[in-house]
Amino acid sequence: MMLLLRKLHLMLYILLLGFFFVISYPLLIFYAWDHQKHYKKLVFIRKWISILAAYGAGIRFKVTYETPINWEEGPYIICPNHTSFMDINAINFLCPVPFSYIGKVELLKNPITRIFFKTIDVVVDRNNKRSAFKALKRGEEILSKGHSLVIFPEGGISDEFPPQLHPFKPGAFRIAATTSAPIIPVVIHNLWEHFWDSGLKFGSKPGTVYISVLRPVHSHDNLSKQEISNLEQQVYHSMLKIWEKESNRHI
């Protein structure tokens, strides 16, 4: 019975997401014609489609900060853990300034995410070194324009349930090393309890999702490979500490 209710809740969320996307579609198409000019408008629409769908389905977000963040002092590289398709909703809720995602190439097949990854976001085929290189360069370009960048450093959602924080890919830290952009680690604690992975296996349920925003980690250019690896480990262990300490409180 519980699984049936969770499946029905998932259907509600998908219907709401589709509804808000469809009514926004004419504006999205119009702005997509010149997405560089209308970058901020596309980010704004993406933000509110996801927030309205989540809130309509009874999913709320509560954010705590290790230290106050002045988002206007960015751009930043935002590095969240990744356990759910709805991590995008959580980050859209969290971040008050324009930003782009770097995400897997499969997102071009999704009718909702496609228009954003064809315009303001960046796709990467992790099995293609050329694609990965181009994605990193595109990420650097976005930061150079003053826009923040979201990269899920685990590289995807693991099949492991319940999820753990997995070792990071180096991409975000290579970009930090070439741009000197500060990294903001973000831990999304219990979203997997409400909506794990795509939601297809366990469905979804309403409730409050807890998010911890950690102290920015500063970098500088001309880092060696070892220094980039050290930066990666520093961010990983800071997130792992909060994940292990706080996540069980919110389940």
Automatic annotation (TrEMBL):
InterPro entries, alphabetized: Plipid/glycerol_acylTrfase (IPR002123)
The keyword Transmembrane is annotated on this UniProt entry: yes
Alphabetized SMART domains for the sequence: PlsC (SM00563)
Record GO biological process: phosphatidic acid biosynthetic process
Domain Phospholipid/glycerol acyltransferase: 76-191
Cell membrane recorded as keyword: no
Pathway participation: Lipid metabolism
Alphabetized GO MF terms: 1-acylglycerol-3-phosphate O-acyltransferase activity
Origin: domain of life: Bacteria
UniProt keyword list: Acyltransferase, Membrane, Transferase, Transmembrane, Transmembrane helix
Transmembrane segments: 12-33
Pfam families: Acyltransferase
PANTHER family (UniProt xref): 1-ACYL-SN-GLYCEROL-3-PHOSPHATE ACYLTRANSFERASE
Protein name: 1-acyl-sn-glycerol-3-phosphate acyltransferase
Organism encoding this protein: Candidatus Sphingobacterium stercoripullorum
